[in-house]
Amino acid sequence: MPPKKAPPKPTKATTSKVPAKGATGKTAAAKKPAASGKSVASKAAPAKEKQNKTKEASKPVREWTPKDDAAKKIQTMVRGFLARRRLQRERKRKEEYEQQMEQLEKEAFTKLVRMEQEQAEKDRKKDEEERRRKREAEKRKKRMLEAAFDGDNDEMLNIISEVKELDDQNDIGTDSIGLALRAKHELDIIDCEDANNNTPLSEAAGGGHVDTIKLLIERGANPNSQGHFLRTPLYRAAFAGHMEACQTLLQFGADPRIYASDGQTPGQLAVFTSSSLKCISVLQCIKLEEEIAGAEADYRTWQKKTIKDAEAELEFVKMECEKARDKLALVSSGQTSIFLRYRDTNYVDALNPINMEKEKLRLALLGSLRYGKPLVLDMHEVDMFHQCQVKFDEIMPGLTDDIMDKSILKDDVFTKLIKDGDGPDYNKNNFNDLRLSHFLFVIMTKNPFPDDELIERTYPIRIHIPV
């Protein structure tokens, strides 16, 4: 292309001002005063605009060439390429973000399950420790009562020492409060009772062991405690004919005027002599025989009434079982879980995050309804009922209640679970009433103490497999 020619520069007209004849410089300056800087700038602006317009008018118009078309296409393609790359990056970032959020949800769910397991383990250990402590306390009571009846003072002192050592292990102090607690614990073992409310002092009195009676009373035992048939230690000593034991009890404040359930007092039961204690007359024996006969008659009447009540209760339980046969909560062993897992059931592991996904749960429930299978929810030893309820309600609000009260079997309820992408097998017309009637919802747990709400809303069955 030939080089562009520069446009001709406009020529400026030169003007000169000639002062008027006969006018001096002074008078000329007086007639035409000099203009200020502001007025000069305002006059120069229109002149510059005029020059710019003249330059623009003199510039030649550039024509659009094929190279310009090529440059435009290249720019369009480059911008499109950059936009596609940016879109790919944004999509990749979105996928990574969604994967990260999904991973965080799974980790949070796993953490929640682990926390529930740890809490369940802590509660189990706490309950076991409490049961162990109660068993040991019952064993100490039994040993104390047996030692008192046998007059084994050394064994009784050993048991009292065990109580003191247990207080030391529990860090009970030696201040006023600690001493009071220690005294209470010692008195609890001194005045412990068996199933018939008999105390060690009553057992020692029945065995006639004077040294044991003194040991117990000196350590705070109640000499007027009433045990089986409201009999006091003095009554049992008199009944067994132990004169020295009766004298010891009387010295330590035993009251001979307390009546037993047979209407007699220790004073009426025996007569003291200088050498021995003569017990229970013939008339009293006859009276006791009559009381025994009356008690046997009352027992037979009570037995008949008890059997009748038990039969009525059995019939009631059978009726309740018939009502609740369709909803089961199994407190089971591990073998039960394995058995149901490999039966023709839809098995859902509550501790498996994959099984507890929203879509997995929906398909498991829908398949159980479609083919009439039991839906088995295995919670293992963790109380996961509330978490599972939340998961079911995420699929459809109120789904848990619909499953528990069998409202899910209605056409206008279970059809809400069907989606367009589920395939022809889950078409509404393929669901029939016969298979729907076979639907069961089974909850399995190894927790020996399930949630009260779960027990209230289901029919619990405890499965025990002998080893």
From TrEMBL:
<feature type="repeat" description="ANK">
    <location>
        <begin position="229"/>
        <end position="261"/>
    </location>
</feature>
<feature type="compositionally biased region" description="Low complexity">
    <location>
        <begin position="11"/>
        <end position="45"/>
    </location>
</feature>
<dbReference type="Pfam" id="PF12796">
    <property type="entry name" value="Ank_2"/>
</dbReference>
<feature type="coiled-coil region">
    <location>
        <begin position="285"/>
        <end position="327"/>
    </location>
</feature>
<dbReference type="InterPro" id="IPR002110">
    <property type="entry name" value="Ankyrin_rpt"/>
</dbReference>
<feature type="compositionally biased region" description="Pro residues">
    <location>
        <begin position="1"/>
        <end position="10"/>
    </location>
</feature>
<dbReference type="InterPro" id="IPR036770">
    <property type="entry name" value="Ankyrin_rpt-contain_sf"/>
</dbReference>
<feature type="repeat" description="ANK">
    <location>
        <begin position="196"/>
        <end position="228"/>
    </location>
</feature>
<keyword id="KW-0677">Repeat</keyword>
<keyword id="KW-0040">ANK repeat</keyword>
<feature type="compositionally biased region" description="Basic and acidic residues">
    <location>
        <begin position="116"/>
        <end position="139"/>
    </location>
</feature>
<protein>
    <submittedName>
        <fullName>Uncharacterized protein</fullName>
    </submittedName>
</protein>
<feature type="region of interest" description="Disordered">
    <location>
        <begin position="1"/>
        <end position="72"/>
    </location>
</feature>
<feature type="region of interest" description="Disordered">
    <location>
        <begin position="116"/>
        <end position="140"/>
    </location>
</feature>
<keyword id="KW-0175">Coiled coil</keyword>
<dbReference type="Pfam" id="PF00612">
    <property type="entry name" value="IQ"/>
</dbReference>
<feature type="compositionally biased region" description="Basic and acidic residues">
    <location>
        <begin position="46"/>
        <end position="72"/>
    </location>
</feature>
<dbReference type="InterPro" id="IPR000048">
    <property type="entry name" value="IQ_motif_EF-hand-BS"/>
</dbReference>
